[in-house]
Amino acid sequence: MTAHHRQPALFATDPELAALVSAEETLQAETLRLIPSENYVSAAVLEASGTVLQNKYSEGYPGRRYYEGQQNIDRVEALAIERAKGLFGVDHANVQPYSGSPANLAVYLAFAKPGDTVMGMALPMGGHLTHGWGVSATGSWFRGVQYGVRPDTGLIDYDAVRALALAERPKIIFCGGTALPRTIDFEAFASIAEEAGSVLVADVAHIAGLIAGGAHPSPAGHVDVISTTTHKTLRGPRGAMLMCKEEHAKAIDKAVFPGLQGGPHNQTTAGIAVALHEAAQPSFVSYAHAVVANAKALAAALLERGFDLVSGGTDNHLILIDLTGKDVPGKVAAKALDRAGIVVNYNTVPFDPRKPFDPSGIRIGTPSLTSRGLTAAHMPVVADWISRAVDAAAKADEPALAAIRSEVADLMAAFPAPGLPLA
After folding, report:
1. Selected catalytic residue, list 238, 305, 335, 354
2. Residue 271: helix, strand or coil by DSSP?
3. Is 129 annotated as belonging to a binding site?
4. Of 77, 203, 253, 278, which residue is the catalytic one?
5. 92: annotated binding-site residue?
6. 402-407 contacts: CB < 8 A, separation 24 or more?
7. CB contact set of 114 (below 8 Å; sequence gap of 6+)
8. CA end-to-end span of the chain, whole Å?
9. Residue 213's closest CA among 109, 309, 283, 126?
10. Catalytic site includes residue 232
11. 229 catalytic residue (yes or no)
């Protein structure tokens, strides 16, 4: 099927934009996508995200809207809410946040006032901008204090977290991050937050799919609020959810609307509902466990090839590689890998002596390749490609990168991606 036949109205109306979409389909089909926050959504999620639900304004919540004509929209949102509650075992779910950062902003609005102390993992240690880091609004409007990882192990030092929490008594503590390759101990954080009198928020944006599939412990029952995006490992559209105990439901809902935003994106809510339905199937459990198995196999294969991994490996979908020993900066390696058809992002590593825009590491993950059907048996091949590409980057050997790209495309052709139309 040609791109022209897949999207006839788009090609007829705006061939320039249609050609770019078609080019992106080809790029996603032919490359090995290792960015841990990316994935392939199903054809069903894509279809739901492009429906006439786009045409409707729905400020408010089901049964309490400021616009009429909500007979169907209310049922769509209620479906997404009930599926979220069932899948994650929570009292309350709000599926309206536009994305992860706005969802986290809603948490601040619900529980803190400007100038209050908030606590999260430092960005260079693997935390997220919205956990009180200085360049973020959350670090400007609130007094952010940060915890990190131990230099010797690359793991969170829970004694240090406790000491900081008791010294600072933050209104909110965030656990979770964007470059954490190890299991988060939600019970330990809950104990610390209780002792410090803090609201505990688990930002599980990266690992929500692993939690839903039983491949990572759940924060439900331990934390006050769970914040997550709906894409990444959860394989939904680009949106977010806030889930919480019943006692916090009103505060969270009021913070999202009218606190931060107006009408929800109903077409995204529909896509979230489909993704949550898919995540409740037995096949999703297999996928979630395969993501972790692939990551562990890839980490082992990289270690065999002399790579230095932060914390020495992984418990989840994510691997953080420190390239200092390879004498190749992260940015140089990431761009070389991209030319080799392997898509990663350069990333700061804990205690990185280099600057954030030119750091020492790269961050990789296994959600996308797992969604395509690659298994642990393929991971030595992937590790070999990464090793060859990093060596080629050090020598500026473009023919070597081109050779890898051809090999990558051959393997990808044998494992079609979900949601991508077949040529």
Report:
1. 238
2. helix
3. yes
4. 203
5. no
6. 402/339, 402/340, 404/340, 404/341, 404/342, 405/339, 405/340, 405/341
7. 141, 142
8. 5
9. 283
10. yes
11. yes
Q: Strand 308-309: give its sheet, edge to edge.
A: 308-309, 318-322, 361-365, 345-347
The answer on whether 127 is annotated among ligand-binding residues is yes
Asked if 230 is an active-site residue, the reply is no
Of 30, 38, 47, 59, the catalytic one is: 59
Instruction: Convert the pLDDT of each residue in 187-230 to its tens digit.
Output: 999 999 999 999 999 999 999 999 999 999 999 999 999 999 99
Active site residue 238: yes
For residue 307, count other CB atoms closer than 10 A to its CB. Answer: 20
- Exposed / middle / buried, residue 353 (Cβ in 10 Å: 0-12, 13-18, 19+): exposed
Residue 242, marked binder: no
The two tokens of residue 372 are: 């395509």
Tell me the three state secondary structure of residue 6: helix
Enter the tokens of residue 205.
């944006």
**Domains of the chain and CATH, by start:** 15-36+289-413 (3.90.1150.10), 48-279 (3.40.640.10)
Nearest to 308 by CA among 294, 293, 328: 328
Angle between helices 71-88 and 266-279 (to 10 degrees): 40
State the helix-helix crossing angle for 379-395 and 282-304, rounded to 10 degrees. Answer: 40
Q: Around Cβ 406, how many Cβ atoms within 10 Å? A: 10
Written as six digits, the tokens of 392 are 């080629």
Q: Is 257 helix (H, G, I), strand (E, B) or coil?
A: helix
Strands 143-147 and 117-121: parallel
Cα separation, 367 vs 40, whole angstroms: 8
CB 379 within 8 A of CB 69: no
Could you tell me the maximum CA-CA distance found in the chain, to the nearest angstrom?
A: 64
The model's pTM is: 0.96
| CB-based contact 108:138 (threshold 8 Å) | yes
What one-character DSSP code corresponds to residue 156? B
Active site residue 59: yes
The residue type at 371? S
The kind and range of the H/E element at 421 are none
Q: Give per-residue pLDDT as tens, 43-83.
A: 999 999 999 999 999 999 999 999 999 999 999 999 999 99
Residue ranges in the chain modelled with pLDDT below 70: 1-4, 422-423
139 is in an annotated binding site: no
